[in-house]
Automatic annotation (TrEMBL):
Location of the CTLH domain: 34-92
Annotated protein name in UniProt: CTLH domain-containing protein
Membrane spanning stretches: none
PANTHER family: PROTEIN TOPLESS, TOPLESS-RELATED PROTEIN 1-RELATED
Swiss-Prot/TrEMBL keywords: Repeat, WD repeat
InterPro entries according to UniProt: CTLH_C (IPR006595), LisH (IPR006594), Topless_fam (IPR027728), Topless_Znf (IPR048419), TPL_SMU1_LisH-like (IPR054532), TPR1-like_2nd (IPR054080), WD40/YVTN_repeat-like_dom_sf (IPR015943), WD40_repeat_CS (IPR019775)
WD repeat segments: 448-491, 583-624, 874-915
SMART domains according to UniProt: CTLH, LisH, WD40
Biased composition (Low complexity): 1068-1090
Source taxon at top rank: Eukaryota
């Protein structure tokens, strides 16, 4: 809601209070959440109206919003409970205990037990802590003092405890001013007009009953409004002077519409572009275009005078021209033939790039995460990994977050307008700015602890001709920083969800910022700290980015809903409405779709393993290209400034650079020049040009928005260790065999890890293949111990799962399920005693209180820890559950069982959507039931299936097998397999102690580690083999195996190699990992005999 709309609510509250509508006043206070009436709250508490107290509070906060809110609700419910006990109304006390107080047991089980024990006392004052409890009235007064302190300290009540200072009857005054102004516009104004209604505009009747002339011909109106005539958006009254004019297109988003269109000034309709570019204001009425009483919605505005109904464009209109609004179509960029669709370069990044940006001046200089490529010469100039420059200057929350979880990913990279700086936004608090001086000369410039949580976007802008950095984050704020000094200039608050993207822009010397949040809200801000001027819903209402055309005249947004529906739309800025919606997206996008604009004419988006193009003036899809295959499901894309090159993220950690004919000529000039000539110096930081379009290059996987989507371990800043592979297909590929300990780095962990502090040799304390790790344990010395099975412990199925952010671990070993705090190792709760026993556990990715529990009786129970209740019981398997995996993009749960069956369940209603029995290879004996495991790919749309007879990649929505690698009949069965942290590799272990590394894109074997490479000779003929395999959360080429003898081995390739073998060449010119599916029974001819 815009700031003016918010102020209107305050005016209505004042009016209702003056008119003695007391109940309505407090209802509006609660529903709007703008003003917390402490006096009313105190009265209700004193009167013991507990239901009304909680109902009123619910308009401002919920129990679990923060610790202050939790304490507020606890104190209220505790007082209600004690009063029931004091009246000896035990049934009521029990009801309050179960209904209202049990929710707090999750957070403090001991306190809940102590409260429960009060029921056993004849007088609860026998409890030492309650011995001073007086009568009800004094107890309520004492509690109120505490509640007021909590409310005042609660950030959710910030700016809501003070009613703005207003003159009496302010709303009546404004209405009277409006009526006076309407009266001035009358052709024949009467000295004492009789105003009988506010429902229509006032007009005095003509003398002798003659018809009043149309206001169109009234000389007071003059011509059409002139430029700059719209009212200042922060003004509080309609007659204040225009100190800071707002450009008409932006003003159109920030005022309110009339349901009755104004009459046209001329006989014919005025062209939309002309009206927007040349508005005029009556000389005697500098602020006519204000909301009227007939406004449909306080966030929209009346049309500027002179725009007829004919320009109110709907969605999906046919292409139209707009006189007076040139779009700057370049004659050199004519047709689809000029689109960059030829793969000119393939760059191996070393990790999947989260964001890319071409240099604004040097068109072939590509920034990908914290790496710099000279695309023309294929040379990687600079590559850096995340490192805090000065930890002492970081806030305590950031330091604590880095200690608890040091994994940090790149969310966004962007060049400054002149290319002398670039900024990097990270998934935890930090923004880093580097200065660039040409060639490999990249220097640290500024490090800013910008936001609490992730920094989701970064951009540059030049308000007041001063270069600034704009950031947004999980803490629901947008901040503006001085790019030279790092001093914070502005903080914009008003979003109610994490802010996903920012798009700074300017029109007619007015600078502003659009922002989008994860609740789908679009807001706009001027650099004046006076609140949002816009409150609109983006199509899809989830992850949305915005961008202007290169000439700044047309505004677009691209977004994806939680259901996977994607949209690109063009906005009518004057109306704040969607002008056209572009068609051609996949029915359910496999990730968050990213887009970009180029040449004032074309739009491009990464969707369905391809790049799709649209002409801006046509909603139909122009063309789609797949970049010779191998693209990600929703690839990140970025044009260079001229539109001749397009960078696209692909599988196998590659960046593909597409080019048109101009781009190919540009790249060709670099092929025969020295590396020095390709690195011209770039001027140091100077006054920037106009703010650039901020089309956001964001990860297709929304897991990086941690507060919304849970486990961020899939989105890590993996260290680049892979060098660019040759594209020479004439080379003969050979499987890499590792048979000797000297061929890789491996380490067997000692059986008794000592508890010690970090030392200089192993500063991180983490496991590597070079140095043994150190066991971590809290100072209390407590151990996490499961409830043991009463029967044979050997038959128990051990299982555990980590919550999002690794705050909790849930575990079972045949007995009750235990929930442990990862920091203290304390047992938070135990529940669900057998039978049946738990065999697999999984946390919901968005709510730690919801867990999926696979049982040995073939059911799956959806359990809410907070209320200690099974919400759903899923039946579809015939044998025990052996695998569970959530997709936080598709909102589904995939399950697998010992019956070799796969099931897909909708997490909204927990209905079964699809099921399929895993096809077992023909001729293989059907022996005892075998575990089937499932794990989602980083794209959250495909998942890995692991069975002793095969590896397979499935597409989730259709439950379709895309790739399969069957084990030959004579080979040892698979014991376990997992994706690497970047999902580019699959590590698999076998019963004969062999470990194999596959390319996940096509499930083709690239490296084999034989037992002789890591097992001593004394064990070579034994039955010791890997039971489980785990990928390192940051290093894509590091993994560990747990052996049947209790040993743990860590593996990584030598630095000189940097990777596990080389990917085999693609057959039929395609290496795309999830498009061309071979026949399920085929045993791929490239599969070497193991």
């Amino acid at each position: 809601m815009s700031s003016l709309s918010r102020e209107l609510v305050f005016l209505i509250l004042q009016f209702l209070d003056e008119e003695k509508f007391k109940e309505t006043v407090h209802k509006l206070e609660q529903e709007s959440g703008f003003f917390f009436n402490m006096k009313y709250f105190e009265d209700e508490v004193h009167n013991g109206n507990w239901d009304e107290v909680e109902k009123y509070l619910s308009g401002f906060t919920k129990v679990d919003d923060n610790r202050y809110s939790m304490k507020i609700f606890f104190e209220i419910r505790k007082q209600k409970y004690l009063e029931a006990l004091d009246k000896h109304d035990r049934p009521k006390a029990v009801e309050i205990l179960v209904k209202d107080l049990k929710v707090f047991s999750t957070f403090n089980e001991e306190l809940f037990k102590e409260i429960t024990q009060l029921l056993t006392l004849e007088n609860f004052r026998e409890n030492e802590q309650l011995s001073k409890y007086g009568d009800t009235k004094s107890a309520r007064s004492i509690m109120l003092v505490e509640l007021k302190k909590l409310i005042e300290a609660n950030p959710l009540f910030r700016d809501k405890l003070q009613f703005p200072t207003l003159r009496n009857s302010r709303l009546r005054t404004l209405i009277n001013q409006s009526l006076n102004w309407q009266h001035q516009l009358c052709k024949n104004p009467r000295p004492n007009p009789d105003i009988k209604t506010l429902f229509v505009d006032h007009s005095c009747g003509p003398p002798n009953g003659a018809r009043a002339p149309s206001p169109v011909s009234n000389p007071l109106l003059g011509g059409l409004p002139k430029a700059g005539g719209f009212p200042p958006l922060g003004a509080h009254g309609p007659f204040q002077p225009t100190a800071s004019p707002v450009p008409p297109p932006l003003a159109g988003w920030m005022s309110s519409p009339s349901s009755v269109p104004h009459p046209a000034v001329s006989a014919g309709p005025i062209a939309l572009g002309a009206a927007l570019k040349h508005p005029r204001t009556p000389p005697t009425n500098p602020a006519l275009d204000y909301p009227s009483a007939e406004s449909e919605h306080v966030s929209k505005r009346t049309r500027p005078m002179g725009i007829s109904d004919e320009v109110n464009l709907g969605v999906n209109m046919l292409p139209m021209s707009f006189p007076g609004q040139a779009h700057g179509h370049s004659p050199a960029f004519k047709a689809p033939d000029d689109l960059p669709k030829t793969v000119a370069r393939t760059l191996t990044q070393g990790s999947s790039p989260m964001s890319m940006d071409f240099h604004p001046i040097k068109q072939t200089l590509l920034l990908g995460d914290i790496g710099l490529w000279e695309v023309g010469s294929r040379e990687r100039l600079v590559q850096k990994t995340f490192k805090v420059w000065d930890i002492s200057k970081c806030s305590m929350p950031l330091q604590a977050a880095l200690v608890k979880e040091p994994v940090v990913s790149v969310n966004r990279v962007i060049w400054s307008p002149d290319g002398s700086l670039f900024g990097v936004a990270y998934s935890r608090h930090i923004v880093q700015l580097y200065s660039y001086h040409g060639g490999e000369d990249m220097r640290q410039h500024l490090e800013i602890d910008a936001h609490v949580g992730g920094v989701n976007d970064i951009s540059f802008s030049t308000p007041n001709k001063q270069l600034c950095v704009i950031t947004c984050g999980d803490d629901k704020t947008i901040k503006v920083w001085d790019a030279a000094t790092g001093v914070k200039r502005h903080t914009f608050e008003g979003h109610e969800a994490p802010v996903y993207s920012v798009c700074p822009h300017y029109k007619e010397n007015i600078q502003f910022i659009f922002s989008t949040a994860l609740d789908g809200k679009i807001k706009a801000w001027l650099y004046d700290n006076m609140g949002s001027r816009v409150d609109y819903d983006a199509p899809g209402r989830w992850c949305t980015t915005m961008a202007y055309s290169a000439d700044g005249t047309r505004l677009f947004s691209c977004g994806t809903s939680k259901d996977g529906e994607s949209y690109i739309v063009e906005w009518n800025e004057s109306e704040g409405a969607v002008k056209r919606t572009y068609q051609g997206f996949h029915k359910r996008s496999l990730g968050v779709v990213q887009f970009d604009t180029t040449k004032n004419r074309y739009l491009a988006a990464g969707d369905d393993f391809s790049i799709k193009f649209w002409d801006m003036d046509n909603v139909q899809l122009l063309t789609a290209i797949d970049g010779d295959g191998g693209l990600q499901a929703s690839p990140r894309i970025r044009f260079n400034k001229e539109g001749s090159l397009l960078a696209v993220s692909g599988n196998e950690n590659v960046i593909k650079v597409m080019a048109n004919s101009d781009g190919l000529r540009l790249l060709h000039t670099f092929e025969n020049v020295s590396s020095e000539s390709s690195k011209p110096a770039i001027n140091s930081l100077a006054t920037a040009a106009a703010a650039t379009s901020a089309a956001a290059d964001r990860s297709a996987n929304v897991v990086s928005i941690q507060a919304m989507n849970g486990d961020a371990r899939n989105m890590v800043d993996v260290k680049p260790v892979i060098t660019e592979e040759s594209n020479d297909k004439s080379k003969i590929w050979k499987l890499t065999e590792v048979s000797e300990p000297s061929q890789c780095r491996s380490l067997r962990l000692p059986e008794n890890l000592r508890v010690a502090k970090r030392n200089e040799r192993n500063a991180t304390g983490k496991a590597t293949a070079s140095l043994p790790p150190q066991q971590w344990q809290p100072a209390s010395g407590i151990l996490m111990t499961n409830d043991a099975a009463e029967n044979n412990a050997e038959e128990a199925v051990p299982c555990f799962a980590l919550s999002k952010n690794d705050s909790y671990v849930m575990s079972a070993s045949g007995g009750k399920i235990s929930l442990f705090n990862m920091m203290t190792f304390k047992t938070m709760a135990t529940f669900m005693p057998p039978p049946p026993a738990a065999t697999f556990l999984a946390f919901h990715p968005q709510d730690n209180n919801i867990i999926a529990i696979g049982m040995d009786d073939s059911t799956i129970q959806i359990y809410n820890v907070r209320v200690d209740e099974v919400k759903s019981k899923l039946k579809g398997h015939s044998k025990r559950i052996t695998g569970l995996a959530f997709s936080n993009v598709l909102n589904v749960l995939v399950s697998s069982g010992a019956d070799a069956q796969l099931c897909v369940w909708n997490t909204d209603g927990w209905e079964k959507q699809r099921s399929k029995v895993l096809p077992l290879p023909q001729g293989r004996p059907n022996t005892a039931p075998s575990d089937t495991r499932v794990q989602f790919h980083q794209d959250q749309a495909h998942f890995l299936v692991v069975h002793e007879t095969q590896l397979a990649i499935y597409e989730t929505t259709k439950l379709e097998c895309m790739k399969q690698w069957p084990v030959r009949e004579s080979s040892a069965p698979i014991t376990h397999a997992t994706f690497s942290c970047d999902s580019q590799l699959v590590y698999a272990s076998f019963m004969d102690a062999t470990i194999c590394v596959f390319s996940s894109a096509n499930l083709r074997l690239r490296c084999r580690v034989n037992p002789s490479a890591y097992l001593p000779a004394s064990l070579s003929n034994s039955n010791v083999h890997p039971l489980v395999i785990a990928a390192h959360p940051q290093e894509p080429n590091m993994f560990a195996v747990g052996l049947s003898d209790g040993g743990v081995h860590i593996f990584e390739p030598f630095e000189s190699e940097g990777k596990w073998g080389v990917a085999p060449p693609a057959e039929n010119g395609s290496a795309n990992g999830a498009v061309a599916a071979p026949s399920v029974g085929a045993s791929a001819s490239d599969q070497p005999q193991r």
